């Protein structure tokens, strides 16, 4: 069927118009949710596109102000957040009925329940669902030219075992709200738009984070991902594949950026850090993701009795490891990087035995790969000197030199810095500007680099990507008390909607220019 | 029966004489093992004592040289060490048949086997056995005046789960060898002498070290000790009492210093430290036991994401704890004390989460209580300052000040310094002098303070006590490769024998003076 353009008068009620109670029916098939354009009288005369004979508004013909006037419903969005938290309700952090965390491990029955809700809700909004071999769910709202790949909003619906209601969830549910707003606003996008729920982003049940977006991007082979085993105790011996089968989410579509292509990927997420909160900003315009490397450091000394061995005769692996941890903090601080140790294993682990072996994790991060490498290089030298009992920057001052220890480095993970796509970053910035006004843009937004990994790291390897951060209370996440205020959820969803529509407009221009 | 003194001619063969093939029998009952005095012709005419009509040598009439000429058999002693290691054979550390550790947890079937061997062996040497309510085994060789309490050699036959063949074992088996030497040398002591095997010294299966000597001394109530439960995994839910019953070692004699009194307690032990080995000395003359305190320190910060939280926004409990551990080493070094951390628990324990809680053990030791107290006091101030983010002695230099943490101290154990009895210390010193010669005494012995706790700490609360240390390879103990060279075992046993005989002579003098 060819595209036809018909004149159609919009019915203006303030900035928004109410939906007509009934729709014209003239024998043409109607796509559910694609019925009538309802826009401000300042718009160009409305027209119908595509197969529909009903008035709709084409994104490429909306002004920035029109885009900004598409308003998400805070009540509806926050309602969805708390409604879906019935599946995997976590620990309480307060007395209120919604003051509870979330415990929704990937591919469990509670995950299956929220997935079914996601599919039925978005299909009721006129979308088509695709489930791939990793259980990733792509829900797509058709646009004018459905030969184009969809612009996606995406994140994940799984949580940490003692997680909160916002990490990942907000990004998917804001995508659902985006679909509602597009319907409500009678907007027809140039190409399709969609929402994607990525499987096992948390890496909590199956121990690789961003697992399924990484299969989609080609980083991790499907067979590796399918055979990954649960690390949750209590005799859960399931693999990813067996879990997908058991909840009926093993799709037939290949998990690949070629089988389910994207035009772009936008991800709304809580910041999981304190910078927006502490600077009283509302939106983080995420330019990229930090570079990081993960190491396991093993310090080997010699076990001995705490009471019978003088300091001179000790090879105390823990005193050495403690100096290394202090030094890693200094080195990173000196280079504008971050260094963190989250795991320490001390052997043999007895009050009256000087530890002979200490293993600790070391997580080094910075905006640029070169800085991470410089910290690594400096610490390799410093740790060797500390193990040898030398005084590094006064750490051994006042102590007694003992027997040297040995130190070994194991590199567990290398994640180079990611630069998000400038078009996507500009879309987020413009959506923020549309919401806050040019005069408030600098005051209320912050260009930032994500410290954490997200599915967007994987999508950015294949398609233009950016992220939108919103503040979360105290910077806390991965905890039942993780909290994003309702108004902040809505602001984030508003910017997500604006970014997706903005990108759709942008690609229309590019299609016009012949550059896509 | 009254004591009779008869003249008796000794039969000299060099320094030692062979035992007669047959013994005179004149109708008088003979106590097994108490048959004939066989000493150097330089001695006073030999006489028989007590109920025996057979020639024996009274310790109070032996010269120092005579005492020194009672020679332990290295072969016999080391033979016993390896023979009894069949009960609870541990991990191999070498290829040789005896190059294995010991795994003989208290009150297990293997412990029962070695106990039976101990009783049958010492009873065959003429001793009488008493088993008390804690399964402590007192084996006593009668002396001239059996109204006097026995002078004991004592230690323990139990081991750590992955222990060695010497810790404790050497002290008991050297006691057995002492009994053999007294028999072989036809020595009648002034009062009885004995050997004691203390139950559960290691505190490995039942988690209180020196458990049964502490009941004996009145430090721990019997009911507490009896109800102590096994901490060994694999469904061992036994209590001390049920274990005593199951191996048939729940004696009827009250476990108390009044029910089984002692004149003195001497304990031969491997040093469990490197000081004798590294100074090439053979005997440690132990003057006492260090003072120590055990603490659990809890540092509370706040969990946060390693990637999303700048140093300024962190309350990193592990960076603080690492600085505290470094500082504890410094503080102790500055005061001639020891500080050690053997256990560290980091929560939540994830590579990409800055730890919100760190708990670590702190073991502070020094020769004097006042020094331990001074280290504790200094560290309480320093740790509070470190937790608050202040720079203590340059530890925070070059770092970034974050959010303050909190620190809490819990005192788990206080063990004041123990001074052993000067009479016992002198006996050990004189026995060493007798063995090495006055000219070598200083070169081959070292007066020292025990860094570890031993059953002698408990006995010293009630009776004159001292210890004898021998070198162990690399200072290693509580490990299968724990090793004391055969000649060092023999030297230690020789000094033990000399000390017990020396104390018996000393008390004879005191009895004579009327001071006992």
From TrEMBL, chains A, B:
PANTHER family reported in the protein's UniProt record: ALLANTOATE AMIDOHYDROLASE (PTHR32494:SF5), ALLANTOATE DEIMINASE-RELATED (PTHR32494)
A Pfam cross-reference name: Peptidase_M20
Stretches assigned to the Peptidase M20 dimerisation domain: 291-387
Keywords: Hydrolase
SUPFAM superfamilies recorded: Bacterial exopeptidase dimerisation domain, Zn-dependent exopeptidases
GO molecular function: hydrolase activity, acting on carbon-nitrogen (but not peptide) bonds, in linear amidines
Organism: Aulographum hederae CBS 113979
Family the entry assigns: Belongs to the peptidase M20A family.
Name of the protein: N-carbamoyl-L-amino acid hydrolase
Gene3D superfamilies in UniProt: 3.30.70.360, Zn peptidases
Superkingdom field: Eukaryota
KW Hydrolase (keyword) present: yes
CDD domains: M20_bAS
